[in-house]
Design goal:
With 385 residues, this protein is of the alpha/beta class. The protein has two domains: 239 residues, Aspartate Aminotransferase, domain 2; 140 residues, Aspartate Aminotransferase, domain 1 (Alpha-Beta Complex). The protein is built from 14 helices and twelve strands. It has a seven-stranded mixed β-sheet, with helices on both faces. The structure holds pyridoxal-5'-phosphate. Pyridoxal-5'-phosphate binds next to helix 3.
Length: 385
């Protein structure tokens, strides 16, 4: 079966007991045992729940992994991932990862003795120099918010040569566009809040592992620490995943159109989109993924006009998050990446005039017209001064 078909039919085709096509939601927190310690696969719902298990298996299949695990948020999934390491061990992380990933390492895991090295993972020479003695490499490709592309295959090979596990945050791409395990990674991370859920009505996270042993270790951590996804959210997530292919196709096409258009606007200083020919890493992106995705970041020529520009938009909503059917606009320096210290943001290029668009499934003409109208209002205001 081709990817689009597998996505529509992922999960159990129907319920064996009733024939229900929709996935049953099992709310029970506990399960009857036939004798002490003898049970039918489920004993207590923190450890496993039939609805969650079905969606975990579906996501594992789509990512090409051995084991899927669902969490109450992407951050809960990342917390379980970092909990694989012992105090004193070192994790190497891309330097422009999601602000919350930076924060949990800097504010929480540092207190428990985990050592983090932030590095530009697109530069394989610099990455190799940091690999000696590292236990875990976490990549985001494309990264958030500057959409920098790391060669997952080559980075994984470098890490493995040093006995280091490789995790890839695949939130921006989803298994529809990119399957990191096939490129050599050991673990895939998702904020399933984003494209997998797809409707701004769910907060969820996921890990998928290439092998059972790492999966079992992560499940033991999840069961011990308890950051699980509840049955209703698991059900919502499967419903989202089943339409991922059509949503992603439309969102990606809209994003490509907007990126091309922005690249020709005088009020835009720079566009970041891994589908543009002038973007560094475009060749790697198109070799390791089925497209460039649906996030477009750009720099306003006049950062001082930022708030006026944002206020002039009618369709793009100013909100955190990304990946859902409606288009959103975000100012990383003040929103998603506010937890990254200002000096660090400046060093990375996350300026006050940087804007990240999450392009939705609306009509592309309406989206371009919305941006154009806000830019015209902005230009009129600037001319008045
Ligand atoms: C790339 C990436 N990873 C992880 C997260 C964290 O996920 P959540 O908000 O579901 O906890 C986010 C959230 O924006 C993200 O963009």
């Amino acid at each position: 079966m081709r990817t689009d078909t597998r996505m529509v039919h992922c999960g159990p085709g129907f319920d064996a007991a009733t024939g229900a096509i929709g996935l049953p939601i099992h709310l029970s927190s506990t399960f009857r045992q036939d004798a002490p310690g003898v049970y039918r696969g489920y004993d207590y719902a923190r450890t496993a729940n039939p609805t969650r298990s079905a969606v975990e298996a579906a996501l594992a299949e789509l990512e090409g992994g051995a084991r899927g695990l669902l969490f109450g948020s992407g951050m809960a999934a990342l917390t379980a991932l970092f909990s694989l390491l012992d105090s004193g061990e070192r994790v190497v992380v891309g330097d422009d990862v999601y602000g919350g990933t930076y924060r949990v390492l800097d504010k929480v895991f540092k207190r428990f003795g985990l050592v983090t090295t932030f590095v530009d993972t697109t530069d394989l020479g610099r990455l190799e120099a940091e690999m000696r003695g590292a236990r875990l490499l976490l990549l985001e490709s494309p990264s958030n918010p500057l959409l920098r592309v790391t060669d997952i295959r080559r980075a994984s090979a470098l890490a493995h040569a040093h006995g280091c596990l490789v995790a890839v945050d695949n939130t921006f791409m989803t298994p529809y566009l990119q399957r990191p395990l096939a490129l050599g990674a050991d673990i895939v991370v998702h904020s399933a809040t984003k494209y997998l859920g797809g409707h701004s009505d769910l907060v969820a996270g996921a890990l998928v592992t290439a092998d059972e042993e790492v999966g079992a270790r992560l499940h033991a951590i999840e069961n011990a620490t308890g950051g699980i996804l509840d049955p209703f959210s698991s059900w919502l997530l499967l419903r989202g995943i089943r339409t991922l292919a059509v949503r992603m196709e439309r969102q990606q096409a809209n994003a490509a159109r907007i990126a091309q258009w922005l690249a020709h606007q005088a009020w835009v200083a720079r566009v970041y989109y891994p589908g543009l020919a002038e973007q560094l890493g475009q060749d790697v992106q198109l070799a390791q993924a089925e497209g460039a995705g649906a996030i477009v970041t750009f720099e306003l020529a006049s950062a001082a006009e930022r708030d006026g520009f944002v206020a002039g938009l009618r369709i793009f909503q100013l909100a955190e998050s990304l990946g859902a059917i409606e288009s959103l606009i975000n100012v990383p320096a003040l929103m998603t990446h506010a937890s990254v210290p200002a000096a660090r943001r400046q060093m990375l290029g996350i300026s006050e005039g940087l804007i990240r668009l999450s392009v939705g499934i609306e009509d592309a003409d309406d989206l371009v017209e919305d941006l154009d109208a806000a830019a015209r209002e902005m230009a009129a205001r600037v001319d008045l001064r």
